[in-house]
């Protein structure tokens, strides 16, 4: 049965349990029932108390694949569980941050694509400090971990104020078993340096918007004569199971 056939005539959302029916057999989802004040949209009889169990079983029997099957997900699920699964699917696609590139794929596919296609990427090891140079006008610098994770050192240039630096990781937000922390420290300049320690934000795409709420603000005077910011970076991977 085509799930679209089951759409309620008063909305464009597919029917999902719980489904209610009036005495004439007209059905509506629980969301529509509350909007209609439990009155049937066709005959105005009371609706919202009697479950339509037959239709619920039909819907629950429909098995479909994840929308991210082309990115590697092999899970089959009931029609009613599709949205909940896709909200946490580890194969949710990530988009390449390069403005002229339209690549989209799983986290692993994006990392492989970036390494093979784009050259401006710094390879690093966790828990080790490494130096990154980024021009004050460059929007980001890609950082590639040896376990396959792709990070972005984001650089938001604010006129007459400086540069806001932060770090994001390309991965679905459902990967909760581990998280990342990062430290940014600028090279000393005129006996001054700046430091930031924070957690890394998970993203699946970056289209020029800076979603980070925490950042290291580097004033213009800390750029070198070539207009570059030199920053020491350390990224740590923390397993939640190890935290008690």
From TrEMBL:
<keyword id="KW-0479">Metal-binding</keyword>
<keyword id="KW-0862">Zinc</keyword>
<feature type="domain" description="SIAH-type">
    <location>
        <begin position="61"/>
        <end position="119"/>
    </location>
</feature>
<comment type="function">
    <text>E3 ubiquitin-protein ligase that mediates ubiquitination and subsequent proteasomal degradation of target proteins. E3 ubiquitin ligases accept ubiquitin from an E2 ubiquitin-conjugating enzyme in the form of a thioester and then directly transfers the ubiquitin to targeted substrates. It probably triggers the ubiquitin-mediated degradation of different substrates.</text>
</comment>
<dbReference type="Pfam" id="PF21362">
    <property type="entry name" value="Sina_RING"/>
</dbReference>
<keyword id="KW-0808">Transferase</keyword>
<comment type="similarity">
    <text>Belongs to the SINA (Seven in absentia) family.</text>
</comment>
<keyword id="KW-0833">Ubl conjugation pathway</keyword>
<dbReference type="GO" id="GO:0061630">
    <property type="term" value="F:ubiquitin protein ligase activity"/>
</dbReference>
<dbReference type="InterPro" id="IPR049548">
    <property type="entry name" value="Sina-like_RING"/>
</dbReference>
<dbReference type="InterPro" id="IPR013010">
    <property type="entry name" value="Znf_SIAH"/>
</dbReference>
<dbReference type="InterPro" id="IPR013083">
    <property type="entry name" value="Znf_RING/FYVE/PHD"/>
</dbReference>
<dbReference type="Pfam" id="PF21361">
    <property type="entry name" value="Sina_ZnF"/>
</dbReference>
<protein>
    <recommendedName>
        <fullName>RING-type E3 ubiquitin transferase</fullName>
        <ecNumber>2.3.2.27</ecNumber>
    </recommendedName>
</protein>
<comment type="pathway">
    <text>Protein modification; protein ubiquitination.</text>
</comment>
<dbReference type="InterPro" id="IPR044286">
    <property type="entry name" value="SINL_plant"/>
</dbReference>
<dbReference type="GO" id="GO:0008270">
    <property type="term" value="F:zinc ion binding"/>
</dbReference>
<keyword id="KW-0863">Zinc-finger</keyword>
